Each structure stands twice: as structure tokens, then as C-alpha cells.
């Protein structure tokens, strides 16, 4: 039994599918199956049972998955502690951010890192939260910013700040004194929303389900600039945090109304793989993000 087999098994256990785990790990399915077979032979016990929808853990498999997560987490902490003995902050760190958070924090993050760690190279990828999460799980990204919700158990996740969600509209659609709107009324409007892979859509779907109402956008778009442009063109309304539209709102080009009954908000989370130790450079990025979190405009801790 080796660490690679344990890591692979944890991903299979989480996803309940050999094919999806192989895709995440950038392995062929036969190669992943061989790892699983070797692990079962070493332990002399069956760990998985195949079902019509994938695989499920046996009792021994459940025990191994739980223990393996602890082992991998301990190993990651040990490697990180040993890495931290090097004082110079160098290397290359890959960071993934969703568009709304990227507008708020990316510039300040890069500026602070260049001032404090000039020998550290940073790559920032702006992508949807689902794609950022997959980037972390596949090892393509070292650090990611996610929104709370369906975050993988393989990831460490800690809150950075909370952002309230607002209905964003063309000024012609908002009365002079209107500052709030009930969620049921939001659902009756022509909405421009991201697709189902986006965390914001999941948040809206959940609230709509609780209200006993369908969420039926008139347009779906996964690019922030497209959402905003369509609202500018008075095609419909969208839902976003105010912090991602500071310029448009301050100049009156768009209007924001707080959503109530219920109020909608989400947490912005700092995340990385449990079983992948943070390099000295990645730790510097994490510490900088934590420091910057308290300075975010229109965000609450």
C-alpha cells in the first residue's frame, strides 16, 4: 500500500465513480483500476462494490476512506512543516478565483505579493467556482477561492468574508425609493443567470425550492461581463454582490436592490487540497489573502 493508491482511493470514494475519479486524477480508467486492484490485494479485502450508477464502498472501504483522509492530512502537515524551514519565499503558485471575487481581490493580492515577496511568481486563473474546485482537486491549482455550498471533502475550506446578494437592474426598472425586493418578486422577473455549474445558480435554486417556486431564467450566461452587459441593455435582471459592480453602481449605470424574505448571502472561502502540502510560496499567498479579507469593500467577516 502506498500514498498514491490511498489518494486515488479517497477520490474514488468521494465521487462514487471510477471514470470520474480517473478524469479528476488525469489517469486512464485502466490505470486507476490497477491501483485499486493492487490496494485490494495488499489488504486482502474488497473495498468497492459496483452498482448501476458507479461504485459504493464496502464496510472495509468506508473504514479505509476515513482513516486514509486522516493519514493524508497528517502527511500534508508534516511536509508543510518541513518545507517551512526554508525562509526564502520563491517558486510558482497557481491561484484560481471566480470572476466576482477576482474583481475585488486580485489586484490587491498581486500588489501586496510583489511588494513583500518579489522572488515569488504568481499565476491567477479566473474561472467559475466549479472549475476552480476541479482545478484544486486535479492539482492544476495550488490555492482557490470558492463560494460556500457543495465543496469537496478533499478540500480545506475556511471563510474569508461574507457577501450579500442583490438584484441588479437597469435604472429604468427601479423606482427612486426602492432599495429592497422580496425574493418571490425576484422570481417573477426576467432573470439572466449563470448555468447550473455556477455556485450562485445553486444558491438561487435552493431559495426558489424553499419558496415553492421555479427558477426559470430567460438567458443563461457564465461570463460576468455578459451578465452585466445584458442588464445594461435592459434585457433582464441578474443577481450579484455589490462588490463586483462598484463602478457601475456608483455612477448610476446600474441599480441594486437588497433581496429580502429571505435575505440571500454567500461566504467566500479560501481553499486548497487537504493532502497536498502548501509550499512556502503558497503559504505566503494564503496569509496575504487572510490579511486582505478584512479590507474588502462592502463585505462582512
From TrEMBL:
Keywords tagged on the record: DNA-binding, Transcription, Transcription regulation
MF terms (GO), sorted A to Z: DNA binding; DNA-binding transcription factor activity
Residue stretches making up the HTH lysR-type domain: 1-58
Pfam families, per the entry: HTH_1, LysR_substrate
PROSITE patterns, per database record: HTH_LYSR
InterPro entries hit by this protein: HTH-type_LysR_regulators (IPR050950), LysR_HTH_N (IPR000847), LysR_subst-bd (IPR005119), WH-like_DNA-bd_sf (IPR036388), WH_DNA-bd_sf (IPR036390)
CC annotations in GO: cytosol
SUPFAM superfamilies: Periplasmic binding protein-like II (SSF53850), Winged helix' DNA-binding domain (SSF46785)
Family: Belongs to the LysR transcriptional regulatory family.
Protein name stated in the entry: LysR family transcriptional regulator
Amino acid at each position: 500500500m502506498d500514498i498514491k493508491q490511498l489518494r486515488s482511493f479517497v477520490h474514488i470514494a468521494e465521487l462514487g465513480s471510477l471514470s470520474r475519479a480517473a478524469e479528476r486524477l488525469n489517469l486512464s480508467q485502466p490505470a486507476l483500476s490497477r491501483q485499486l486492484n493492487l490496494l485490494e490485494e495488499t489488504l486482502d479485502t474488497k473495498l468497492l462494490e459496483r452498482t448501476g450508477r458507479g461504485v459504493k464502498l464496502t464496510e472495509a472501504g468506508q473504514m479505509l476512506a476515513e482513516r486514509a483522509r486522516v493519514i493524508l492530512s497528517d502527511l500534508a502537515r508534516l511536509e508543510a512543516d518541513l518545507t517551512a524551514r526554508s525562509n526564502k519565499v520563491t517558486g510558482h503558485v497557481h491561484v484560481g478565483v471566480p470572476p466576482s471575487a477576482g474583481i475585488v481581490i486580485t489586484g490587491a493580492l498581486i500588489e501586496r505579493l510583489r511588494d513583500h515577496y518579489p522572488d515569488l511568481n504568481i499565476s491567477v486563473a479566473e474561472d467559475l467556482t466549479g472549475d476552480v474546485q476541479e482545478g484544486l482537486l486535479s492539482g492544476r491549482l495550488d490555492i482557490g477561492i470558492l463560494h460556500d455550498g457543495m465543496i469537496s471533502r478533499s478540500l480545506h475550506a475556511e471563510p474569508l468574508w461574507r457577501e450579500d446578494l442583490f438584484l441588479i437592474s437597469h435604472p429604468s426598472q427601479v423606482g427612486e425609493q426602492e432599495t429592497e425586493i422580496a425574493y418571490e418578486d425576484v422570481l417573477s422577473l426576467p432573470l439572466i443567470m449563470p448555468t447550473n455549474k455556477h455556485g450562485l445558480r445553486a444558491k438561487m435554486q435552493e431559495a426558489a425550492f424553499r419558496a415553492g417556486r421555479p427558477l426559470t431564467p430567460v438567458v443563461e450566461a457564465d461570463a460576468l461581463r455578459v451578465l452585466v452587459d445584458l442588464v445594461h441593455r435592459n434585457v433582464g435582471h441578474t443577481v450579484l454582490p455589490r462588490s463586483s459592480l462598484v463602478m457601475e453602481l456608483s455612477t448610476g449605470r446600474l441599480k441594486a436592490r437588497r433581496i429580502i424574505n429571505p435575505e440571500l448571502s454567500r461566504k467566500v472561502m479560501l481553499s486548497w487540497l487537504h493532502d497536498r502540502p502548501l509550499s512556502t510560496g503558497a503559504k505566503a499567498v494564503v496569509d496575504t489573502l487572510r490579511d486582505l479579507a478584512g479590507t474588502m469593500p462592502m463585505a462582512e467577516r
